[in-house]
Write a structure and sequence with these properties.
mainly alpha; two-stranded antiparallel ribbon; 2 domains; globular
Length: 221
């Protein structure tokens, strides 16, 4: 969840154990300077929330930019202020995109968008069961060609690619943030370990072990 708290909003946080994330606090003057530099307005005047858990690209980009901002903040040297301002501007741009996506999500959806949303809900419910596409189609009361056309029209991806994308997102999350072994992660996602390794490596370009080591190294810095 991306939470935007504008100036003047009294607030506080209670974090659950194992919570992970970033809190960025900037002055009203600096925020105004960033907006003026970017030539953009339109940020909310009240607390605004953008769900990013189902938006993998936005989540990944935000995490990367926040991480780079934190690393720069901990350093001291020439160009530090410029770099910090650049990362804040990048985050503000991503915030605007998230807000736009959230607003669009509340617009009336087409029949194809509704179908894809229902398909995604079923994928969530059956993610580790690796159900055949025919089963999804039967539950939705449609043909595979209808589902394929809708998925490609709405997301640019095939139904099977959407399932694999969701499995990969969960695999990355578990490899990055859990203490489970790779075999345990594989079984939890409904894979045999050897097949999981091939499945993950083909799509990520890294083996699960290499991805996990990189994530742990990044976390320790």
């Amino acid at each position: 969840m991306l939470l935007i708290v504008p100036p003047g909003e009294v607030h506080g946080f209670r974090f659950e154990p194992q919570s992970r994330g970033y809190v960025l606090t900037i002055t009203d003057a600096f925020f105004g300077a960033c907006c003026a530099l970017a030539g953009e307005r339109g940020y909310p005047q009240t607390v605004f929330m953008v769900p990013v858990g189902t938006r993998a690209a936005l989540q990944q980009t935000l995490n990367g930019t926040f991480f780079n901002l934190e690393q720069e903040f901990r350093q001291d040297g020439i160009g530090r202020g410029t770099a910090l301002a650049g990362y804040v501007l990048a985050i503000l741009g991503q915030v605007q995109r998230g807000m736009e996506a959230e607003a669009a999500a509340h617009q009336p959806r087409s029949q194809q968008e509704e179908l894809v949303a229902r398909f995604r809900e079923q994928v969530e419910e059956n993610l580790t069961g690796h159900a055949a596409l025919g089963k999804y189609c039967a539950q939705l009361g449609i043909t595979l060609s209808t589902l394929t056309r809708a998925c490609r029209a709405v997301t640019g991806r095939s139904p099977l690619e959407l399932i694999h994308d969701r499995l990969m997102l969960e695999a990355r999350r578990l490899l990055s943030y859990s203490s489970l072994s790779i075999s345990e992660i594989a079984y939890s996602l409904g894979f045999e370990p050897a097949y999981f390794s091939r499945f993950f490596s083909k799509r990520e370009g890294l083996s699960p072990a290499a991805f996990q080591r990189a994530a742990l190294l990044k976390e320790s810095k």
